[in-house]
Design goal:
single chain
Length: 120
């Protein structure tokens, strides 16, 4: 299985499954990638329609569910990753950074707890 960067193999347990450590690493790398892309999009003043945040976070939520990680713990991991990204912490306007973090949290929750389809 490829790692989050697509360059290498993840470590596997004897039964061939990814270790929880590897899954956690993939999760953190996916979150970091999603946040970095969104920061770059924002800083380059490109259209919000170009955002891949929702699909990126959908993948994050899939990994979190495979790990049986509750949403509350996933949000804690997102905050930890966010705080480890210099571009997120040193945003020119703190209000913009807070707005982006709020968007990441909101989209994550919507993807973690998807709404059932409406039947008419």
């Amino acid at each position: 299985m490829m790692d989050a960067s697509g360059r290498g193999e993840l470590t596997a347990n004897e039964d061939g499954r990814e270790s929880r450590y590897s899954q956690g690493t993939v999760l953190r790398l996916q979150i970091e990638g999603a946040v970095m892309k969104e920061i770059h999009l924002h800083e380059s003043h490109r259209s919000q329609t170009e955002s891949t945040l929702r699909s990126d976070l959908r993948g994050v939520c899939e990994v979190a569910r495979r790990m049986a990680l509750p949403a509350e713990q996933l949000l804690t991991v997102i905050e930890e990753v966010w705080n480890s990204i210099p571009a997120a912490r040193s945003h020119a306007r703190p209000a913009d950074a807070q707005s982006l973090l709020s968007r990441v949290v909101t989209v994550t929750l919507h993807e973690y707890y998807p709404m059932p389809p409406m039947h008419s």
